[in-house]
Structures are given as C-alpha cells and as structure tokens.
Amino acid sequence: MAVADIKVVTSIKPLALIAKEIAGDKVSVENLLSVKASPHDYPLRVSDIRRLQDADLVLWVGPSLETFLQRPLNNLASNKHLAVYDLPGMNWPEGESHSHASAAGHQHHGHDPHVWLDPRNATIIAEGLAKKLSEIDPASSMFYANNVKKFSIAIKELDQHLMKILTPARGKGFAVYHEGYLHFVEHYDLQQLAYVTFTPERRPGAKHLYELRQQLNNRATCLFIEPYYDMRIATDLAQELNLKVAILDPIGEPEIKTYKQLLEKMAQAFLACLANSSVTGEV
Ligand SMILES: [Zn+2]
To answer: Which terminus, N or C, of the chain has the lesser number of Cβ atoms within 10 Å?
Structure first.
C-alpha cells in the first residue's frame, strides 16, 4: 500500500503515541480528543463520528473509560475497532479495591481502565495493534513486527530505569485527585493512601472528604492534582492538611511527544514531590 493509505484513529493521546511508534510512516495516526479534554466525559461531535467512520481502525481503551465511544463504535464493523482493555496478557493492579464500585453512575467498571500507565501494558497494546495492522496491510507485517520489537526493548529499559529512580519516593504517602493511577502506583510500589474523587466528573461528597482528612492527616506528603478539572476542593484540602501540591498528567500535555516522555514525566512528578520529605505513609 502507498504511504499513509491506512488511517488509524486513537481515542486518547497515550494510545496515539504508542501507535505512532508501531505504524511509522505506513499509517496515519490521528487522535480524537484534544489533550485538554477528559476521556471520562467528552461530548462527541458530528465531525468526530465522521472521523471514526473514515478510519481503517479505531484504537481505544474500552467502554469503562471512553463510554461516549461505545455507541458510535457499535455501528462500525467489528474488525474496525480495537479495545485495548480486552487484550490478552494485560497487567492489572492487584490491590485494587472494588468496595467503591457501588457508587452509582460512575464510569469505571471493574478494573482501573488507565491501563497505559503500566509500561508493560504499552507493549501489549503495541503487539495488539501490530497484529491488527498486519491484517489490514499484510505486506508490511515485518515492518510492524520490527517496530514492536524495538518498542518493547526500549520500554523494558525505561521500566527498569523508572523502577530504580523511584526508590526515594517509596513509602511516602500521598493522595491522587482521581482513582486513575493504580497501574503506575502499584507497578512501581508507591504509597497511595487515598483519592479525592473516584471519577473526575463527580465531586467528592462531605463524608468522603471527612474520611480523606482522617486518611491523610499526618500520613501524607503530597496531593497530586490534574490539569483538566477545577481543583479548588483538592487545593483547599492540601492547604488545610499542609500537603505539598503537584500535578500528574496521565494524558500528556502538548510538550509530550513520546510515550517514554509521558511516563518519565509522571515518574519525575512523583519523585519531585515525594522524595526528601520526612512524613512516611505507613497505614
Ligand atoms: Zn480517569
């Protein structure tokens, strides 16, 4: 096939970053959501639906994250979309608590859907995509397979590097804004004590805020906020409990150009806020 005859549309930037490394110049990779949009509650436009219909393949996480994509994708042929959530071999956080799964109306079902924050899953996603692309474009299957090989070696190195540099951050308690970081936190053995809200489109209730204060007081060092939402509740809480505030960016702001940079920046954010602090997060 001619250069970039094949069109892949990804739902969120982290998937686009992975896809670009596998697809090279054989495939055009377009990302649906702007980096400022939250995948939890995105209002799909008519032009977005047209982009989905024009794609040879839509790569997305799955209905527990981008709920808004479920219906439009059901209208496409089943071989034209790939939900990475369902890929075999995906790693899941073990200590994930399901006790809050009864909070009606939220959009996470089952596991934490932010699967790309575990680098091992990035490799699984790359493999799943390469398989799909090879079905669409069998002539280039060696090219995709080679790119997967290169990617997975680089990711393994990145993973070992992050495992090492995060050492000073271990055992330091913190809270995140929404329950979206377990894939990173558990894989790198960090000490998350609580989240401000389970899913970002819901504001925390008074009871949860009360419990948060109990969980964090004298135990936590940092409260990590996000670039996407109104953070006043979180920053007020941080001030009250004398916590440092720092930003975690799970999607990748414009200056992030590769998957590797996305994860490195996240590790640096944890490290900068948690290392060299005296309060430990023992529960
Ligand atoms: Zn999320």
So the answer is: C
